[in-house]
Amino acid sequence: MKLLISAGTRPEIIKLFPIMKELDRRGIDYVFVWTGQHYDKNLFEIFIKEFNIKKPDFNLMIGSGDHATQTYKIIKRLSPIIKEERPDIVIVQGDTNSCLASALTAVKMKIPIAHVEAGLRSFDMRMPEEINRRVVDHISQALFAPTENAARNLILEGIDSSRIFLTGNTIVDAVKFFENKLDCYTYEIKDLRNYILLTIHREENTNKKRLKFIFETLLEVEDEIVFPIHPRTKRALIKAGLYDKIKRKFIIKEPLGYVEFLCLLKNCNIVVTDSGGVQEEALTLKKPCVTIRENTERVESILMGFNILTGYSKDRILNAIEEAKRIKVNYDKNPYGDGNAAKKIVDILLNKDFDIQHINFLERNFLRGVRLIYEDISVNEFESKNKCKVNAIIRNGKILIPSNSKLFRGDIVIYL
Ligand code: UD1
Ligand code: UDP
Contact 145/220 with Cβ under 8 angstroms? Predict the structure, then answer.
């Protein structure tokens, strides 16, 4: 089994390194392609060293650019590598342009795709990430859903449940990997106390109007704010003439290494962010989170009451910050997983057959119907009677993947 892992941004390498480590542990080699969407040392190389993973076998060096340019450059430069390497499966993660373009290249070359962190939905097609993740899910053969909610999103889009695997999110593995390094820390940040940790980088939050609104609002907060700054945001703040003002009030840091960032997260009072991964890490490290967005695909911590979505109202942002300081995050089970996602993913990759069956899976991949069950019947009987495949069962308000063989009166069946 030849595996090719393709990634190109900070969150991808952070969420893929647990899988790489698991492969290393089992003595399984893989081809590692870095697209070069992120190229600054602090967004890329720093993590290779920190995670002690192998350097990329190939760097496509696509750099920055508009979305279409990034996508076509990756396709152009990745396709000869796939042609040469002939992997059995291409592994991609998340929702970046690197993820989309790598998946498109694979499917066009009839190579099966494994999508790590499948099924997240913000239901906001204005976000480039929402477009990317939807497309990738629908062309992948192995979909590793991090949460029940993500698996449900996929089923409701008519994706065959035999391709969906509930594994948890590898971000929990990543946090656990460094968990015992987060206390006795020796970086310069060790003296910081009672601060808010801030990260802002989303495209929709870095246009001039939004950026100005967000940062003028945050300048009214009295607490100390520590702000490891994404290069996109730094550039935008300089352009908007706000950088010097922010620098006088906030403690600005260059993008940090993973352990240093987690250390800051673990020791902050609350985190204010628009990042996807940071929302999951906040819950994992039991920190209250305020998310400056109109929506989020990370609904779990919102539903648990530990993450407050503010939208773009000044009062809501300022009130949410005060409210979050009073939240005590506590739970028995982390909805993002138990820290064994990478192990589960590698087990599935090595033991299942992901033959592409190029046309078949695409043709079957639409929602055919929903039916109420009036009498107890086996799944097999229902399938042969209706010439269909039971894709999911709604029972007592929960969506179940049909692993057992019986349907009961009152169940609702979603079939393909
Ligand atoms: C990308 C992802 C986003 C993810 C984020 C993680 C897409 C559509 N967006 O956004 O989902 O949350 O990565 O951080 O794929 N830049 C540098 N140095 C670098 C890389 C970028 O200075 O190494 C600057 C450039 O000015 C560039 C800008 O950041 O134009 C945006 O970079 P880009 O990769 O297009 O998007 P991100 O905002 O990083
Ligand atoms: N992160 C980091 N250093 C920093 C800021 C963030 O290592 O200075 C990590 C953070 O722990 C999280 C990931 O970067 O795992 C999130 O990346 P980002 O916010 O860029 O992308 P998103 O998760 O929104 O796609």
Answer: no
Q: Which amino acid is at 313?
A: S
The whole-angstrom separation of Cα 219 and Cα 227 is 12
Q: Is the dihedral of CA 392, 398, 404, 408 positive or negative?
A: negative
- pLDDT classification of 388: cutoffs 50, 70, 90: confident
Expressed in angstroms and rounded, the spacing between residue 283 Cα and the centre of ligand 1 is 24
Domain boundaries, the chain: 3-169+338-351, 182-324, 368-415
- DSSP letter, residue 375: S
Please give the positions annotated as active site.
201
pTM of the model: 0.93
Q: Is the CB of 161 under 6 A from ligand 1?
A: no
Third-level CATH fold of 3-169+338-351: Rossmann fold (3.40.50)
Under CATH, to which class is 182-324 assigned? Answer: alpha beta
Pocket of ligand 2 (CB under 6 A): 10-11, 14, 199, 201, 228, 230, 255-256, 258, 261, 275-278, 281
Q: Kindly give the residue spans of alpha helices, DSSP state H, lying in 52-127.
A: 67-85, 97-108
Closest by Cα among 265, 246, 259 to 192: 265
For atom 13 of ligand 2, the residue with the nearest CA is 11
Same fold, 3-169+338-351 and 182-324: yes
